[in-house]
Structures are given as structure tokens and as C-alpha cells.
Amino acid sequence: MPRDTGFPLADAENDFLRMRRRQVLSRLGAWLRREPDDVNIMLPFDEVVAALGRVGERRLGLRTIDLDSIVGSVDRTRDFDRRFRPTSGRARTRWERLALAQRRGESIPPIEVFRVGDLHFVIDGHHRVSVAHAMNLRTIDAYVTEIITRLSAEGIRRRGDLIVKDYRRIFLERVPLPEDARDAIRLGDAWEYSELSEAVEAWGFRLMQDEQTFLDRATVARRWYEEEFVPVVTMVRQAGLIDTQTEAEAYLWVIAERYRLIRSHRWDDDVISAIRQGPRLPRRIGL
Q: What InterPro entries does the database record attribute to this sequence (predicted)?
């Protein structure tokens, strides 16, 4: 707990002022470092669940959770920043009342949260979370409801990450790959998931024309991965054309180069040689 003066009311007031200073300094620091605008913004629960695809929920009851795992809110994203520091003086009266109770050792009821992966989103108890941070606590008691989603919440650090998750979810609806193949398809640019979806669908259309039969999306996805993606990535890797990119990024680049250079959808040694003599696959920074 922060150093106090022995006067709980004055200390509670100082706690709030200290948290407000930290919020202002954090915002200023992010601006000076030219960080993305959303680096200190609390994650909105509805947007996260929409991006990941909601499947269901289950009540887990009373749990003790890490404060640092609380990254978002159901409806109070403007009142607090990512670290639950107040963004204005609107919450001051209620905040100081809770801080005073905390300092006096009074009983504080558990908060209520949604859990998505290992992330938690506050339903009720935003001020209690903020005060707990001010007191330098590490955990807090919470009634937890777990939200089950189609995609994992892994990799979500800020609001901008939701765009990639949303496009990936749509990609997997259009290209329903088997579970063991999904992890191989990773793209850093959200829009590239749309490009890859169209490439797979075009490949499936040509396959159905060649075989004169209808194939459902799951069959096209499985056959594209086994008969197109894996062999092509193997050839590209053997040709030394993959550097810092993911395999899916390398695949997208090489099929575009193939068509640009030879206007063909075939694969053979001549195609790879032509691509090797063309411009190198651009490096991706920060992946």
C-alpha cells in the first residue's frame, strides 16, 4: 500500500490525484514516443468478442484473478485507461470513497468480470479495480463468467489487434481449415486474409472445373492446404525465398509473382527459377 500520512481521508484524496497524474504522464509519454493512439485505451469487450466469434459462456463463480489480466470493460472504456487510471475528475467522489474504505480495512465486495482466454473485462467494479491498482495490489476477488470464442484471444494487446483477429475469423469461415492446419496460416496484415480467401476460393473453383464435380468449402480448404499450400511453401523454402516472413505471407507473395511473371497457375522448376530471378520477397518488420 502507498505511504500514508495517517489521515485516511487525505490519503484517499492523494491516491486519486496520484492516479490522475500517472494517467496524464502516460498519455504524454505515448505521444512523445509516437506510439499508436490505442496503446493506452481500454479494450472494449463487445469488439473483442465480435472479432473472436462468440460460441457460448459458463459461470465459474468467485475467483481470485490477477489485476494485470483485467484489460477491458463492458461499458466504461472512456472513464479509465488501460491501467484503470481515471481519465478525468468525473469519478473522483466515488473513487475516493472506495479508497477511504480500502484504507480503513472495510470489506470491499468482489467485482464482476467476463473472461475471454486469459483476459478479463469488467462488468461491475471499475472503481474498485482502479483503487486496487492505486494500492499496488496484485490480485482481486471477482465473480467470473467465461466467454467461449471461436478464435483464441492470444496476441491481443491493443485495440488495433482486433482488426487482424476479425479478418482471420472471417477467413476461417470462408476457408474452414482442419484444426491442425489453422496454426500454419498467420498473416500480420489484416487485409491479406481477404486476399488469401479469394486465392483459395479461386483455386477451389479451378479444381472443381478440372474434376467436373462440386466440392464443399471444407473439402476445398483441406485439399488446398494439402495439395497447394504445403507443396508450394516447401518449394519456396527450398529455394531460399523465405526470410523473416510467415509461410502464409510467403505463399501470397509467390503466387502473385508467378502470375505477374508467367501468367500461369502451374508449378514447376521453371516457375520457381523465374521467381528467384525476380525481386526478392520483401522483409516484414516486427513479426
A: ParB/Sulfiredoxin_sf
pLDDT at 287: 36
Q: How far apart are CA 58 and CA 144, in angstroms?
A: 9
The pLDDT of residue 190 is 82
Give the type of residue at 34.
R
104: its cell numbers: 480503513
Record the cell numbers describing residue 178, joined without a space: 482442419
Sheet holding 43-44, edge to edge: 43-44, 70-73, 119-124, 111-116, 139-149, 54-66
In DSSP terms, which residues pair with 209 in a beta bridge?
A: none
| Selection from 66, 69, 72 nearest residue 45 by Cα | 72
DSSP label at residue 107: -
Report the topology of domain 8-149. Answer: 3.90.1530
Instruction: Please say if the pLDDT value at position 239 is more than 70.
Output: yes
Give the integer Cα–Cα distance in Å for 64 and 140: 6
pTM: 0.64
200: three-class secondary structure by DSSP: helix
Encoded amino acid at 108, one letter:
I
100 or 60, which is more confident?
A: 60
Q: Which of the pair, 50 or 24, is modelled with greater confidence?
A: 50
What b-and-e string marks burial along 216-243, b requiring 16 or more CB atoms within 10 Å of the CB? eeeebbbebbeebbeebbebbeeeebbe
One-letter amino acid for residue 189 of the chain:
D
